[in-house]
Design goal:
Length: 311
């Protein structure tokens, strides 16, 4: 399955019939639903418990499927194990079951009455997707994504599921007043700003040169020198010569440059000032101001990567 567009809701489908899922994928597109397909409960658990799980907003289960990857025949106990797991792990996600076997449909429609909706393959796909779409749109985080579709579109196209989760976490919790939550929000903002510059380094290395990014031992994370990147973006102004020493990517008087500085300084200083008092301590309003500034930076980043040149 391809990566969904920003205006698509992503749902997990666990079904061992790939031909049927291919057809289901086309049906889902008509309802703005993209499917993430796996063939076993074991693989489904890995999706839910990983970064991709943060972007899912519904689950479709074949009534008979594999519990484990190495099984050769569908397991009749799959549906009970799967519904138990997803009820505990993702209780807010809308979940439905589907089968192409009439006796199984009748059995589970009766057994799941009032708990899960059961649908028939080849007959009920339109009703199933309509129901899933309606239920998913009531999820709190989906409402937030729908409130900022342009920003989340940029994140999904260029920054990935980890950044999607961090941004969503900020927007969901930006009014929280607990100090640990404020610290977590500021850490997310700093991480997102660094991800912007890491992506710009890959896309336009002259804009964010390699000397500003150091890969830590092990190679799994990078240290981003945001202060030097900001100086480079504004052209490396020399106050003595009163001229720029390099190309200007963001004018130092522009709103976007000032927002870049603000997010960097507020996030970095605020994390360390959580336990201080007075003017140094960040509040929920600090988080909200920095979060909305970051939204503008993400739109700028999208315009640069997509050749629209907002500078």
């Amino acid at each position: 399955m391809g990566k969904p567009d920003a205006d698509h809701l992503t749902m997990l489908v666990i079904d061992d019939d790939e031909q049927y899922v291919d057809a289901l994928f086309r049906d889902g597109q008509r309802y703005g639903i993209a499917l993430r397909h796996v063939a076993s409960l074991e693989a489904g658990k890995e999706i839910i418990e990983g970064d991709e799980g943060k972007t899912l907003c519904g689950i479709i289960l074949d009534v008979e499927c594999y519990k484990h990857r190495n099984q050769e025949t569908p397991d009749g106990s799959f549906i009970i194990a799967a519904t138990k797991y997803f009820t505990e792990r993702a209780p807010d996600l809308p979940l439905v079951a589907i089968t192409g076997v009439q006796p199984l449909f009748e059995r589970y429609q009766r057994d799941f009455d009032g708990i899960w909706q059961v649908y028939r393959k080849g007959r009920d796909e339109a009703a199933m997707f309509a129901c899933l779409r309606k239920s998913a749109e009531e999820l709190g985080w989906v409402k937030i994504v729908n409130r900022y579709p342009d920003v989340f579109g940029v994140v999904e196209r260029h920054l990935g599921s980890d950044a999607h989760g961090e941004l969503l976490d900020c927007l969901v919790n930006m009014q929280a007043t607990a100090l640990p939550r404020i610290r977590g929000n500021l850490a997310n903002l700093r991480s997102l700003q660094e991800k912007i510059y890491l992506a710009l380094h890959r896309i336009e290395p002259e804009m964010v040169p390699a000397q500003f990014i150091q890969t830590r031992q092990g190679g799994d994370k990078s240290c981003v020198d945001v202060a030097r990147i900001l100086e480079h973006l504004k052209g490396g102004y020399d106050p003595h010569a009163q001229r720029n020493t390099g190309r200007v990517y963001l004018h130092y008087r522009s709103i976007l440059y000032r927002f870049s500085e603000m997010v960097y300084k507020v996030a970095s200083d605020g994390i360390h000032a959580i336990d201080e008092g007075g003017a140094f301590r960040p509040t929920a309003y600090t988080v909200q101001a920095a979060t909305f500034a970051l939204l503008d930076l993400l739109l700028w980043f999208g315009s640069v990567t997509e050749g629209k040149g907002r500078r």
